[in-house]
Specification:
It is a single chain. The chain is built from 10 helices and 6 strands; from the N terminus they run αααββααββααββααα. A two-stranded antiparallel sheet has the order 1-2. Strands 3-4 form a two-stranded antiparallel ribbon. A two-stranded antiparallel sheet has the order 5-6. The chain has helices at 2-35, 44-65, 69-96, 121-127, 129-142, 159-163, 169-174, 203-206, 219-265, 271-278; strands at 103-104, 111-112, 151-152, 155-156, 184-187, 190-192.
């Protein structure tokens, strides 16, 4: 009995540590939402799941330490639903970020992002005028474009240097015009459109050298946000899959240990030795 309780207590302690990992992923997404991705409701399911696992694992740990059957039953019952919720969240995260990726550009180090490459629920949320007004304002306030400037020995980077940079999806989509517009590079966020043929891309007419406007109303900017979200979610989802596998293993072991506890509490026969003890053979004189 004591060995089973110790095992359940250890499993709950490990589950508690896993909850910290999930919470950390949610907090990281929250920081990204505030500083980069700017879509601020997607991290909350993960934070709620992490906090729930933490609370339930503490209840299971207390139940194992004090041999409280109710707390152990509550732990097993609730943890099953939490595992299902985490599994559902992982499937949801992969489903809404399944389509769309950056396109390589000849002789450029960065990728270009096109809204037409994306589809589904997440795209519909991003392009919604109400949400996009908040997202674009967040991107502007984060000053992600203003931080793009580089200089070498006091000399600003040249067009060739800029072309070889690995830009983030938001930097590529929101802070510069699309490459197919053919604008001439002046600096990272200033481009000369005079004397050039404006491309067929509708974002070419939306670009503005006004540092408060840039390409924040461009489809490429919306695509860049979707690309950034995809990268963030995929990183967290890999960790969540590992955590989910460990939680399932811990849950199965905890169920077996709990059944063993109940069997010993009820003094049920277990194994050949218990059967022999329960029905001792008659002694013949």
């Amino acid at each position: 009995m004591r060995a089973s309780n110790n095992l359940i207590g250890l499993l709950n302690f490990l589950t508690f540590l896993l909850s910290i990992v999930i919470l950390g992923g949610g907090i990281w997404l929250s920081s990204r939402a505030s500083n980069t991705d700017c879509l601020k409701f997607l991290q909350w399911p993960l934070i709620v799941i992490g906090a729930s696992i933490m609370a339930v694992s503490l209840a299971g740990f207390a139940g194992a330490c004090y041999r409280n059957t109710f707390l152990l039953q509550l732990y097993l019952f609730v943890m099953l639903f939490i595992i299902a919720a985490l599994f559902g969240f992982i499937i949801f995260a992969y489903a809404v970020t399944d389509k769309g990726t950056g396109r390589p550009v000849m002789n450029k180090g960065y990728l270009e992002y096109y809204l037409g490459d994306y589809s589904g629920w997440l795209k519909d949320r991003v392009v919604d005028e109400q949400y996009w007004a908040k997202i674009s304002s967040c991107i502007r306030d984060s000053k992600v474009c203003g931080k793009m400037g580089r200089s070498f020995n006091g000399v600003p980077e040249t067009s060739d240097m800029f072309s070889m940079r690995k830009l983030s999806p938001i930097q590529s989509g929101c802070c510069k015009p699309p490459t197919d517009c053919g604008f001439v590079y002046v600096n990272e966020t200033l481009w000369d459109a005079s004397g050039t043929m404006i491309g067929t891309n509708t974002d070419c007419s939306r670009w503005s050298n006004d540092q408060q406007q840039l390409c924040y109303q461009c489809d490429s900017c919306k695509a860049g946000v979707l690309g950034s979200l995809k990268k963030s979610w995929r990183k967290v989802s890999v960790i969540n899959i590992v955590v989910l596998i460990l939680l399932v293993i811990f849950y199965v072991i905890a169920c077996a240990a709990f059944r063993n506890n109940k069997r010993m509490d009820n003094d049920e026969p277990y194994g050949e030795a218990r059967m022999t003890k329960a029905q001792p053979s008659r002694i013949h004189m």
